[in-house]
């Protein structure tokens, strides 16, 4: 006679393997999973692992164990808002960005975008794409009359009047702006630019670290919606001739 198997919810399976990994000393780090945590040497499953097994076996009867295994996440952390746990410097940087005028990032964006992305894009100002950049991409200037690029505001101040320097970036469509390499390049520039104030670099570094430590990720669609608004502002920044 065939034995009947009941389907176990995927979240319990994931929780089981995650906790089983902890039992043997595995730990998750920004550089991958490594051995480094103290293993369970008692010879018996931990209380949490037993709870996961019990809950998977009978979710209804063991519902009281849910909070032990899946603690509720702070809604602010889920939205990648870290002001309440960040340092005084980072809180001040975020507050300043909310008060300062920006060509591309508006106060109304703040509730819908991560603190990191809000602060990052605040560090860029408008700039016209130089003919060299357009020629390299075989783009006719008249096709981008209203388009603005993204220029590091600190490089713009250090190199007034220059039409092309290393702090300028020119995505020519929404797809290239949304590409992960675009945000990576902007982040690397601001974090390594000698003109960027130390408090800005430290705030962005801390926001990245807090995101990694809390294990939260950007909600599906939120980044796309923000970049869509950002692109519309960039694409129509300069008045049509």
Gist of the model:
With 241 residues, this protein is mainly alpha-helical. Helices cover 47% and strands 7% of the residues. The strands form 2 sheets. It has a 3-stranded antiparallel beta sheet. A two-stranded antiparallel sheet has the order 1-2.
Using brief descriptors, characterize the structure shown.
single chain, 241 residues, mainly alpha, 3-stranded antiparallel beta sheet, two-stranded antiparallel ribbon
Q: Spans with pLDDT under 50 lasting ≥5 residues?
A: 1-5
Mean pLDDT over the residues: 83
Q: Beta-strand percentage?
A: 5-15%
How far apart the termini lie comes to 81 Å
Major sheet, described briefly?
3 strands, antiparallel
List the helices and strands and how they pair.
Layout lengths: L9 H14 L2 E4 L2 E4 L11 H11 L8 H4 L5 H4 L9 H12 L15 H8 L1 E4 L3 H6 L12 E4 H6 L9 E2 L4 H5 L1 H13 L5 H17 L7 H14 L6
Helix pairs in contact: 1-2, 5-11, 6-11
Q: What do these coordinates show?
A:
This protein has 241 residues and is mainly alpha-helical. Helix content is 47%, strand content 7%. The protein is built from twelve helices and five strands. Strands 3-4-5 form a three-stranded antiparallel sheet. Strands 1-2 form a two-stranded antiparallel sheet. Strand 1 (26-29) and strand 2 form a beta hairpin. Helix 6 (115-122) runs antiparallel to helix 11 (198-214). Residues 1-5 have low confidence and may be disordered.
